[in-house]
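Throughout this review, each integer encodes one residue's backbone shape. One record appears below.

===
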Amino acid sequence: MMWRTGGHSITSGRQPSPALQKFLRRYFVWGFGIRALICASLAWGGHAFAAGMFGVSTAAFAIGLPLLRVKRWNWLILILGAEWTHLSSGLTAAYGWGGGFHFHLLLLTVVTLIFDHIPIRLRVLMALFPMAFFLGWFPPLMTRPPVIQLSAVQANWLYVINALVFIAAAMVLVLHFIQSALVQKARAEALAESRAELIANLSHELKTPLAAMLTTAQSTLKRAQAEADYREAILLWERNTREMSHLVVRMLDLVSADVHELKPQVRKVDLVGLLGEVLLSFQDVARAKGARIEMDATGALPASTDPELLKIVLNNLLSNALRYCKEGGAVRIEVRTEPGDCRISVIDDGPGIAPKDLPHIFDAFYRADRARSRSEGAKGLGLAIAQRFAEALGAKISVQSEPGKGATFTLHCHR
């Protein structure tokens, strides 16, 4: 069954943040070990109910382990919440209301604050379930004698310890929630500024081809033209339309990368084979410029990555290299491997990049040589897109260049 509200499902939607995924992994593994020790100590003391508690925890671990491996985080959260509820109620029944273990069930309500990848309505429902269970199950335990009899001093100490654990954990969770909310607010503000800048730059970049098309159309309509003149005007419109279409597609790619919602579909691929496919798609471009594309890599090179995102990165790096390489020059691809890592370098023999331009080379719409870039159709987006999609893959791009000595862009990625 899936709880739905507003078109969202608790078992689907966005992925948790890397920090939350790390927390869930640690809690799942270490928490099971701690719970197993608690049940073992109770069983050692001759309490038969501990076997049932351990059985439920073991079942939760057996169900949750495959969910953890396939990263079904929301299902895992539901399983852990149910197991937590069972353990809290079992310990409360064992030590009585005075033991303070009911605080752990209330803590489950506060924990829902950190699941910021789940829509707020669903989190409210998740928080209400342990509260409803608390109101329905725990009050009768106030009058029921505990299974494990403690002295008044022992019960008071146990109550104080559980209360302090609840307060400390609740404070940490609330602070984490506040910090996460502030980070999300800052990210939203930065994204709004980034989108506004991108729209302004896009408007600026579209003015030139639109103005050229409008001028050509007006001059063509003023008087009758020869067939060659009409053909020339149509070719201009076709070229400018193609450039604007390409620019809009690139902008959409860049905005999607800015939204931080890219979810890499990681699988095993052969990097050398993937590079071969990318190089093949650029053969006509290289031939038109009289340039060569050389690759220094042979044999299979397995890696775990998202091939589609990696192709976008490589396409932009290779397109940039071919744009700036010399007429009749060469672009070289080098692949170097280390244990667990891989470096893919795209090297051109172009004019190079000035030191003052290197810090800005991955900024959207930045062009070191604006006149040349405009004449060759560059919009200053390719490297920005490559860098942001590389970050989505957990990789990074570095650049080395000197004026007059070409440029080397290196993609550092995990295997």
The two ends are 37 Å apart (CA to CA).
